[in-house]
Amino acid sequence: MSDWRMRAEAHRAVRILRVVEEAEGFSTLYFRDALCRKAQPGQFIMVWPPGAEEIPMSLSTIGGESSITVKAVGPTSRRLTSLSEGDLIMIRGPFGRGFTLMGEKPLLVAGGTGVAPIKPLVEEMLSRGLEPTLILGARTKDRLLFLNRLRRLLGSKLHIATDDGSLGFSGPASEYAERLLDEGCFDAVYACGPEAMMAAIYRAAERRGLPIQVSLERYMKCAIGLCSSCAIGPYRVCRDGPVFNGEMLRRVLDEFGRRRLDPSGRPTPLEE
Ligand SMILES: Cc1cc2nc3c(=O)[nH]c(=O)nc-3n(C[C@H](O)[C@H](O)[C@H](O)COP(=O)(O)OP(=O)(O)OC[C@H]3O[C@@H](n4cnc5c(N)ncnc54)[C@H](O)[C@@H]3O)c2cc1C
Ligand code: FES
User: Fold this and answer.
1) Ligand 1 pocket residue status of 114, Cβ below 6 Å
2) What is the largest CA-CA distance in the chain?
């Protein structure tokens, strides 16, 4: 096993540099870590706050400082959002395969906390001279994460979709994506967010013959391809993903957007 991989798999304690409340129940925790600094957009870490479980989180900032952006949904994510500057968390990773760059004018679609891995992807695309367009979606305008930062980065190439119509397009981001795909001259598609949204965008990209990558979530324990709790078809999401391309998705269409394994390994319908 390489030295880098051994170091990535070991637990490390990192101190929280600051916590930014992005919206009610959504917080970004910043820290410094030598391995996360070199991660690929789309890779994730396992985060273990004191007194709680260990859960997967995408890296939402990659560079001198790293960050995770957490939506408080249950005991561990709530514990994370309750932490403050100076607190310690244990991390492992970064793990998995992140996004790879395709095309020159990609369309990106991010729903809810799905924007966490998409933000560093946008930053990388811009640094390499690509021209990304992003649809940022959320239930309401108050839940649009990183809105100001993305506005500064993308200007008129940032589009908003809210389910309640409080800002931008009124309706699902996937519906808006169909419109932009019909109007625009995009040569690749990326998506991260609720799986029903990603499945709709996958179908839209396939109909137009465009290459696509999406980031999947499955229940994770080991994060290194051993326990099978994140299995989908022949793949382990922690090791072969979380980013899946069109060819991989075609092999798991009976599960993608339909069902997942629950924590005890039983197939269960996806609820969004
Ligand atoms: C690769 C990946 C990246 C993710 N990135 C982010 C992110 O950037 N921001 C964010 O807010 N959330 C992210 N998640 C989801 C996050 O891991 C879950 O919301 C979190 O685990 C919930 O734990 P809980 O104890 O707070 O809630 P619980 O009440 O225990 O669970 C709530 C939901 O989270 C799921 N979940 C619980 N434990 C795990 C686990 N070990 N692995 C996967 N899912 C689990 C459950 O299946 C359930 O659907 C990511 C998940 C994966 C797999
Ligand atoms: S989490 Fe164990 S194989 Fe993926």
Assistant:
1) no
2) 51
Kindly state whether residue 101 falls inside one of the protein's structural domains: no
pLDDT tens for the chain, 272 residues: list them.
677 777 888 899 999 999 999 988 899 999 999 999 999 999 999 999 999 999 999 999 999 999 999 999 999 999 999 999 999 999 999 999 999 999 999 999 999 999 999 999 999 999 999 999 999 999 999 999 999 999 999 999 999 999 999 999 999 999 999 999 998 789 999 999 999 999 999 999 999 999 999 999 999 999 999 999 999 999 999 999 999 999 999 999 999 999 999 999 999 998 75
Q: Whose CA is nearest to atom 3 of ligand 2?
A: 225
Q: Does residue 69 sit in the same domain as residue 168?
A: no
Q: Which of 49, 65, 95 is the last residue of a domain?
A: 95
Give how many domains the chain has, as a whole number. 2
Are 87 and 127 part of one and the same domain?
Answer: no
Do 89 and 111 lie in a common domain?
no
Q: In what order do the strands lie in the sheet with 66-71?
A: 12-15, 88-95, 44-48, 55-61, 66-71, 26-31, 18-23
**Is residue 143 located within the same domain as residue 256?**
yes
In a domain, 190, yes or no: yes
Q: Ligand 1: which residue has its CA nearest to atom 24?
A: 74
* End-to-end C-alpha distance for the chain, whole angstroms: 38
CA 104 to chain centre: 21
In a domain, 76, yes or no: yes
**Cα(78) to centroid of ligand 2, in Å?**
23
Ligand 1 touching residue 36 (CB < 6 A) = no
Which of 46, 69, 73, 218 most suits a substitution to test ligand 1, by most atoms within 8 Å of the C-beta? 73
